[in-house]
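Ligand-bound model needed. L-rhamnitol.
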Amino acid sequence: MADYDKLVGRGYEYAKEIYSHNGVDIDAAMEDCSKVAISMHCWQGDDIMGCESVAAGASGGIQTTGNYPGRARGGDELRNDLDVALSFIPGTKKLNLHANYAELGARKADRDAYTPDDFKNWIAWAKEKGMGLDMNPTFFSHKYAADGFTLSHPDEKIRKFWIEHAKRCREIAQAFAKETGKPAVTNVWIPDGYKDTPADTVAPRKRLIESLDEIYKDTGIDRSLVLDAVESKLFGIGVESYTVGSHETLLSYALTRKIMYTLDSGHYHPTEYISDKISSLMLYMPLIHLHVTRGVRWDSDHVVAFTDDLQKIMDEIVFGGFSERVLIGLDYFDASINRVAAWVIGMRNTQKALLRAFVTPRKETVEAEKNGDFTLRLALQEEYKTLPFSCVWDAYCEKQNVPAGDGWIEKLKKYEREVMLKRG
Ligand code: RNT
Ligand code: ZN
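Prediction:
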């Protein structure tokens, strides 16, 4: 059998000619793709357990299911796992942290008192790799979120606690940005909502808006360093009838307050796609933020697969020329398979779809559309689907010094055997 590197080289030559025949320079496409950052979510690595002394896992309508062995326990193991995952993923990466990944050591503090110092290990880790960091306040897995309400809680004391938490997170994000030299997205998702039909749908939303205004009025934060975003959701497990932070509530909020809106691909009706929303929002907002995930029936958080839905998202970003204005992050959690593999699979698929969008020929389909020749448009779109993209992907992986093809799987299995399965 010819060794895989040689095949990749041959495939590259072949693809270069075929794509250039279709008017596409694959080298330029690879270069463009490599500039787009994808933010990998730390929480796939340990079922959102985090590093606080009381690890509670997910709650508030989100759930990890499965008990695959080898889960990272604590920051050091998680960073080890991240290193392995990153060694298999091409392109520019950021790490997306949740506040419950603070490492307090002996310090006693609740979430309303976290500081950048509680993230010093993460900052050092990111700086060493030249990576940016993103941030999320954690409004779940906490005694003040136990009844399912946080920023919209009827009790002012509890609201205040969460407001202070979010403020601390923006301060931490600002420190991330200063230390890494890259702006930090700070994404607010709250679990607040009702399992059953509310009697009053307005009051919680009013409280949420007031709380958010309180968080964002903080003037000490440089908005070019901290990129604020709010994330809506249609429903969650146990929060089926009403979510306070619905699409309309938070899109309107983001628009009027001039912050980012987060489109999570698992947070809409099953036949409603976030890809359809990107170009609309780009007409009104300078920046938006994505949580790319894969919804399956009522679960919004399966590992990202290389699906048509994913491709549509990346096509919209690239075809619209929005790759600097749509900030891409991933958001899923699967505890039923190797957690490092889950990261790698989802990240590689996202990079793959992004690269594929960059190499997909555009000129003639756009031209056909202008001329009203929809037959030609569809005929070309369908032909382009079988261009030799796998050759471009393999070449891209090689160029980025990560394994092409299935070359990473054996290495991952070795790490699983030698490290992950030895964890108690
Ligand atoms: C929940 C949201 C949210 C979380 C993370 C862990 O439905 O998608 O983004 O998944 O904050
Ligand atoms: Zn999300």
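Residues 43, 48, 62, 136, 189, 231, 233, 264, 291, 300, 331 surround L-rhamnitol (ligand 1) (CB under 6 Å).
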